[in-house]
Amino acid sequence: MLSLVEDHYDTMKTISPPLVKSHLIAWMSSLPPLFACAALTLNIPSSVAGDYPAYPAFDEEMRSYKATEPTGAIASLHQQMDSGGARLTHDTTHGYLTSLLRELNVPVSSQLLVASKTSPNKALISPKNPRALYFNDQVSVAYVPSAELIEVAAADPRLGVVLYTLAQKPAERPRLVRDDRCLECHASAKTLNVPGILVRSFLTKDDGEVELLSGLLVDHRTPLADRWGGYYVTGQHGRQTHRGNLFGTQAIARHEKDPSCNANVTHLAPLLDVGKYPSAGSDIVALLTHEHQAHAQNLLTRIHYDSQAALRDGGSLRPAYPAIEAALRYMLFVDEIPLTAPVQGTSDFAAEFLKSGLSDSRKRSLRQFNLKTRLFEHPCSYMIYSTSFEALPQEARRHFYRRLWDILNGEDRSPEFAKLGAESRSAIREILIATKKNLPAYWRL
Ligand code: HEC
Question: Which of 39, 117, 148, 201 is the most exposed, fewest CB within 10 Å of its CB?
Fold first, then answer.
């Protein structure tokens, strides 16, 4: 298996930009001209990250990242396994997957299917054998049928995301093994230069190979029409179009003529053998949630590193303000792309996601979906409850809360937050006061 991983790294390293380019052009020229244009316009990887400062590279922090023992969900799972409180069991269908998801409290209903070869298990991934992703607020698990490794990305409250693999071969004492080599992609400009989560949309060929230069970063600011290249998408979304369920030049060309040809798919059975997976779909609500969360996670990690560096070097938090402002803007969904038709998923994801969090006495929750005009009913990210937020340096959290208070109370009148309606502001404030621990005392006066 190691050789697969090695292979993967080598391929990624040895693709020189000119080669990729000529390959892309060759592929594009086989497409109808209209699509070639569309694809070229897609080639602006910074379109969603453009409003943020250029974050410095992570090199300096990398040494301490590598030298630090992780905490977080995987570390506690290992502790529980050592004390006999948890056990990973192997089954012949999915190896350790089912048991791992159960022990980590990751719902099977969160399943997303990705057919693009963006993984160390890439040799096995294709539209007929996609990679399945499962997630909760802290952990993502990636599973490819018949692969020798399960991949895991876990948010460490101090380090950012830590990557692990779990061998699928039955073992006496199964263990997740940390692999910092994954950072080659998982700590790059695409993750704000901190160890983070990636979500991309690629033009994807029949065999799952991607056109590297077509890659877009995806979060809640990406137009739906550009999302989900390389992904399967199941659910209803009316006349909104997207790039999911499209593999190969013919399918993509067909989509150019008829943008609804891949839309509102509720069953994948005609396209692939879903029996290989614990769930049958790639739920559109789970997709929308996952891509919101990925960038929120990366922003929180960025605040963590920036504020730590600022406080260490000069004592003033000021250098971390841009990251905090970016996170506020993002976590309040200021630039969210509105939904133009109702969205409905195909799994129990939405119901289970709501149940897993706190509500106020009026049953309002930051995990309540809207799905008519926007993702959430109350536009403030549930990631404010995450361990990554709670573990921010105290000064950074204090500043974040002060700014959030000013915005929610209308004391901040900057045009940036003007879109946030008065009703939303007071609902968010009331929900937080009822459900959020560690709020500064002035919130409750
Ligand atoms: C060549 C780049 C690359 C390398 C190396 C890489 N990944 Fe990834 N990984 C990606 C991309 C790109 C995605 C997003 C999938 C997509 O949207 O197409 C991803 C997604 C994931 C996810 C899903 C996380 C989420 O929530 O989106 C997990 C888990 C993961 N990778 C684990 C790993 C592990 C573990 C390793 C190392 C053993 C690794 N990756 C190495 C590119 C890479």
Answer: 148
End-to-end CA, the chain: 58
Q: What is the pLDDT of residues 340-399, one digit of tens each?
A: 999 999 999 999 999 999 999 999 999 999 999 999 999 999 999 999 999 999 999 999
Q: Tell me: the pLDDT tens digits for 225-269? A: 999 999 999 999 999 999 999 999 999 999 999 999 999 999 999
Among protein residues, the one with the nearest Cα to ligand 1's atom 36 is: 182
> How many Å apart are CA 298 and CA 292, to the nearest integer?
11
Atom of ligand 1 nearest to the CA of 153: 29
433: its two tokens: 């006061």
Dist CA 438 CA 444 (whole Å): 11
Which residue's alpha carbon is nearest to atom 39 within ligand 1? Answer: 182
Which residue owns the Cα nearest ligand 1 atom 19?
198
The answer, yes or no, to whether any atom of ligand 1 lies below 6 A from the CB of 228, is: no
Q: Please check whether residue 328 is in contact with residue 403, taking contact to mean a CB–CB distance below 8 angstroms.
A: yes
* Cβ pair 336, 221 in contact under 8 A: yes
The ligand 1 atom at the shortest distance from the C-alpha of residue 200 is 17
Atom of ligand 1 lying closest to residue 141 CA:
29
Token pair for 146 = 């018949």
| Spacing, Cα 214 to ligand 1 middle (Å) | 17
C-alpha of 185 from chain center? 14
Q: Are 375 and 339 in contact (CB under 8 A)?
A: yes
CA distance 287 to 235: 10
